[in-house]
Amino acid sequence: VLDLHSLVDPHADALTSAVLADVLDALGHRTAALPPALRPLRPEWKLFGRARTLCAVAATAEPLHPYAVEMECVDALGPGDVLVATTGGDRGSALWGELLSTAARARGAAGAVIDGLTRDAARVVAMDFPVFAAGFSPLDSKGRLECVSHGEPVRLGDCVVHPGDWVFGDVDGVVVAPQELAAQALRRALEKATGENRVRAELAKGRSLREVFAEYGIL
Amino acid sequence: VLDLHSLVDPHADALTSAVLADVLDALGHRTAALPPALRPLRPEWKLFGRARTLCAVAATAEPLHPYAVEMECVDALGPGDVLVATTGGDRGSALWGELLSTAARARGAAGAVIDGLTRDAARVVAMDFPVFAAGFSPLDSKGRLECVSHGEPVRLGDCVVHPGDWVFGDVDGVVVAPQELAAQALRRALEKATGENRVRAELAKGRSLREVFAEYGIL
Amino acid sequence: VLDLHSLVDPHADALTSAVLADVLDALGHRTAALPPALRPLRPEWKLFGRARTLCAVAATAEPLHPYAVEMECVDALGPGDVLVATTGGDRGSALWGELLSTAARARGAAGAVIDGLTRDAARVVAMDFPVFAAGFSPLDSKGRLECVSHGEPVRLGDCVVHPGDWVFGDVDGVVVAPQELAAQALRRALEKATGENRVRAELAKGRSLREVFAEYGIL
Amino acid sequence: VLDLHSLVDPHADALTSAVLADVLDALGHRTAALPPALRPLRPEWKLFGRARTLCAVAATAEPLHPYAVEMECVDALGPGDVLVATTGGDRGSALWGELLSTAARARGAAGAVIDGLTRDAARVVAMDFPVFAAGFSPLDSKGRLECVSHGEPVRLGDCVVHPGDWVFGDVDGVVVAPQELAAQALRRALEKATGENRVRAELAKGRSLREVFAEYGIL
Amino acid sequence: VLDLHSLVDPHADALTSAVLADVLDALGHRTAALPPALRPLRPEWKLFGRARTLCAVAATAEPLHPYAVEMECVDALGPGDVLVATTGGDRGSALWGELLSTAARARGAAGAVIDGLTRDAARVVAMDFPVFAAGFSPLDSKGRLECVSHGEPVRLGDCVVHPGDWVFGDVDGVVVAPQELAAQALRRALEKATGENRVRAELAKGRSLREVFAEYGIL
Amino acid sequence: VLDLHSLVDPHADALTSAVLADVLDALGHRTAALPPALRPLRPEWKLFGRARTLCAVAATAEPLHPYAVEMECVDALGPGDVLVATTGGDRGSALWGELLSTAARARGAAGAVIDGLTRDAARVVAMDFPVFAAGFSPLDSKGRLECVSHGEPVRLGDCVVHPGDWVFGDVDGVVVAPQELAAQALRRALEKATGENRVRAELAKGRSLREVFAEYGIL
Fold first, then answer.
1. Where are the beta strands (DSSP E) in A59-98?
2. Which residues of B touch D (CB under 8 A)?
3. Quick one: pLDDT at residue A8?
4. Which chain D residues are within 8 Å of B161, Cβ to Cβ?
5. Which of F175, F206, F219 lies closest to E67 in CB terms?
6. Is D158 exposed, middle or buried (0-12, 13-18, 19+ CB in 10 A)?
7. DSSP B127-158
């Protein structure tokens, strides 16, 4: 398995989720974006890493062994991993929070993407640990959400995420590059950014979109 | 009636809506959180105080005596009070704004929670008067919303709010502690925060969630 | 056609979308606000200008001539124009982004209001080009949205926007003054702001809302 | 107050909610239709009568005097009245049911329109008492909904309903003719139906819509 | 484990989901109703039996062993059982259909309740096998939904369903009586129906709701 | 262009939208179903024919030439055609109704599928002209919806419909077979139905799903 961390520095200006999505579109993979409701807690955050997955459903009672699956999942995270979790539409409590962020960071994880709610937002922001979520709740998940699996593929909206896919997130949202396309897509995305710089300069001078698009083929 | 303002300083680090919700969960009160759509206008805001309630429905015409009920309600606010208002799902205009905030603050109110829209957000932020709302509208409520009662219990989502309950809000959302549980819950929440500090430190060192949770029982 | 840019400096404190909406209400025009989901990318932004319109629907395939209509529309923008675009509820990709913002700004446009999603938010914010939108997506509109007309009236929620109407946006949302009411409405709104200053001062002193409203008739 | 029951027999073929809505449109009243979620329990039902109104909000506890307001409202219904009730978007329990239908019918009421849920649907259908509602719930409203007023104007979606307005419902939905327009609108609607019969016959022969619409101006 | 099939004949007139919900309310169990979106394919259907549960989430690929969990679940149904299944909000394909209905009926199952979509509706209706669902789709669940467990408690909206609970469904919706309350609740519900008959007769005579409710305490 | 009307008699028992969707799934075309909100006005209706398309957006005023595009579209329908129209999510008025149905039928059209609302439902049902729609409104589309094109591809949810595709609808929903797959898909679907008959018989005898699926590979 290729490690693409050496390829991409998410804090470099050039790469954005939009450019990566464009490249994946061009490669024929048009369902790379997670649902637009998933937002970074801070708009400045960028997130890049290898997907690790977690799936939760509506819980029915206080569990005998609370948090068993999510603890196992987070304890297994490694350097550069990004947790991608889904509650399947349940918005009744927070699946994620500060202590899980602390444990994840201690293992070197790069961040977490939660198709569900998070809490402890003030402290997660203070930790500067990139979390993308669909919103906030002060309510704990215990007795409200039950994690049913980890390490299995999950689907968030139209986008299927496999463990080992590569995740890139910024203020525009989160894009997931399938493992087999990721190296190629990231390389092309880094190149495409250069092209956009030129187009931007031309447009800023006042040339028409029609002309510039005809010349560069980028918009 | 107990005044809990001496007990809690909402600007102290230790207390959060998440910890308070956990304590209320443990006391068997699991519907303490207001709907997650209610957000502070500034994420840094913390809000604590005694609930005063207001209930509005869709209006049908310009009223003869505009704003009568909300003026009565706000004029009756006292030091440390938090207005909790609901429009029952109507999102067609702003129930709250700058002038009401000014009047509420002049009476010593601690803030306002609106299950509906607000306006004059720039000035409310400039006043540093904590308002939590479901969104924004430039439209006035006159002829669009009609306040039908104040000082009566209201329900926002699953959470019933009685006048005299205690409200705590921060970036994770708003938690309402029923009057009869509030003193006990707030005391326990202040204690629980200490426990979390220890857990956080253990996790930051890299111990596994499984071990730390087994030892402290906190997650 | 009257140019109202000389009348209004959107960065002046006095005018807000809320005051303008109140004046339009008083003139009998009660559908002046765009849907509350349309938010500025930065809460500090204010936007004022003449409406230019664009209408998109769900696309069905990669087009032969991509971006043709939106390029024509943006290339035709002039100084002080505000693009008002709608996707009719489609939230599957971003209709707007950085390169379109760059081209619009190069023609002197004041900003863009998108009833749909935008992307390149970090760079649009860095450009300080006021964009109001319903959310974010990294996905390009190519093959996902098709612009079917520009320069025709559009409807966003209850609000009809004609080319030549005057648009004012701030953190509370976006208000559209019909061309024939705009000069009168903007003048009255600038005056009303003064009245609010007095009311605010009275309320801040602690006078009751009931009294102050009886005296000034403003809330 | 005019009694229009002599004017209209809702079971006559000619009059439909669609034709009545067209006539009200032509008279400049374009918000006559209740929200499309309100459906007759049986598609065959037609409903016509004078509006009586009821307004409910989310309840917070079992009331001391359960059902007080709705009992007062229903006990006051008279021959040919149609109850129009709203829960303001709450869909957590049934505001209406069989016993209320029985009492309403005993007073001669023509039917009920509930912007909320109903129950006892099987028996209401067996009674052949026309109820239009937004859905069904087995849950009683006691402790879940609280009626806060009756006999006051209510707003359902965009449509304001005043006591004394005239209500016409069929499978296409419910149209409310304001009291001052009702006689004129109903007379014109009865006439327009005749015109439609001719247009229908022409179209059935195979003439083009373009030609027939040019000739009759009806579509 | 008590078998309550002898107690209740769902086709008897007297018992309805509404009366059963009222009795459970009175016993303090106020979350007995499944979400109102779950509707019988035929309004005439009544359903009664012991709950068997199934839980599905969004699938990510064609499975190696398609339908494994749902086949195991349905093959294990016994006489008088009612399958209660949830897709956790996913509405992208049909979890249920004719062949599963055929297999369920062959084992004596009384019906199925699907918090999700169904298909083959014409044939399921022709079989007269009571299915309650949230809607219809021609799309098979293979590669779209994955069943992750059966025989575990599930939550549908606010209502937790345990295997062995008792399910009663009719046109008003579906009520679930927890195993430990079911015998008592069903007995009381059968009695309460008698009381309603008397109330109905009184109201039909034209007595006021106020009087009749004061006398019988039933509404 | 192949005419498939000779191949399929939609009133034959064997073919259903579900079987056709299964076959298209097997051919790799997994977005063949229109959104589940589109329902037949009568559950008994079956619809089969060649797609003709129409696209509408929110209108902004009474048009100069009302109904121009939809009249042109309907006047151009031919024998066996099915109109497929979309309003892009607008649910504020009825795009379809009785007079359009009459004109469509006079040209031999097989039915209409409206991703939007319809009206005149009683008469459309009486005509036995199969209309599938997302709901009902008494309000005319004039000044509320504007048809912007016909004869162009349209997208309804995930499903792209091209003029000339083949449409099959029944109580489970509507499936669209792309022109180039339609003949093959319809032939296979007719065959698959036979296989299902055998499976059904086996299951009805009480054989387990596991066994029967292992043997026939159909579920």
1. 81-86, 94-96
2. 55, 57-61, 86, 88-90, 148-149, 152-155, 160-162
3. 87
4. 60
5. F219
6. middle
7. HT--EEES-B-SSBSTTTEEEEEESS-EEETT
* Per-residue pLDDT tens over the stretch F109-166: 999 999 999 999 999 999 999 999 999 999 999 999 999 999 999 999 999 999 999 9
Residue with tokens 């007769």: E201
pLDDT tens, position by position, F48-105: 999 999 999 999 998 888 999 999 999 999 999 999 999 999 999 999 999 999 999 9
3-state secondary structure B21-71: HHHHHHCCCCCCECCCCCEECCCCCCEEEEEEEEEEEECCCCCCCCCHHHH
Which of A113-127, B54-68, F37-51 shows the lowest mean pLDDT across its residues?
B54-68
| 8 A C-beta contact, residue B80 and residue B182 | no
Q: State CA B136 to chain mean position distance.
A: 17
Give me the pLDDT at residue A64, please: 87
E88/A90 Cβ within 8 A: yes
Q: What radius of gyration do chain E's Cα atoms show?
A: 18
Q: Nearest CA of chain D to the CA of E149: how many Å?
A: 28
DSSP category for residue E34: P
Q: How close, in Å, is residue D101 to chain F by CA atoms?
A: 25
Q: What's this model's pTM, rounded to 2 decimal places?
A: 0.96
Residues B1-42: tens digit of each pLDDT: 568 888 888 877 689 999 999 999 999 999 999 999 999 999
- Tell me if A180 sits within 8 A of A18, measured CB to CB: no
d(CA D166, CA D51) in angstroms, rounded, equals: 6
Both tokens of A191, joined, read: 């190149």
Encoded amino acid at E191, one letter = E
- Side-chain half-sphere of B82: how many Cα atoms within 13 Å? 28
Q: Residue A158 corresponds to which amino acid?
A: D
Which of C57, C61, C161 lies nearest to residue F57, judging by beta carbons?
Answer: C57
User: Residue ranges of chain D with pLDDT lower than 50?
Assistant: none
Give the closest of D61, D88, D155 to B60, CB-based.
D155
Q: Which residues of chain C does F89 touch, with a Cβ-Cβ cutoff of 8 Å? A: 88-90
Partners of chain F (3+ Cβ pairs below 8 A): C, D, E
Residue C193 has pLDDT above 90, yes or no: no
Residue D169 contacts residue D132 (beta carbons within 8 Å):
yes
Spell out where C14-99 has E strands. 39-40, 47-58, 81-86, 94-96
SS3 C132: strand
- Secondary structure element (H or E) that encloses residue F216, with its range: helix F209-216
Distances (CA, A) of E213 to B117, C23, D103, D127: 40, 51, 11, 21
Contact A173 C140 (CB under 8 A): no
Q: Which helix (H) or strand (E) element contains residue E118?
A: strand E111-118
- Do E and A touch, 3+ Cβ pairs within 8 Å? The answer is yes
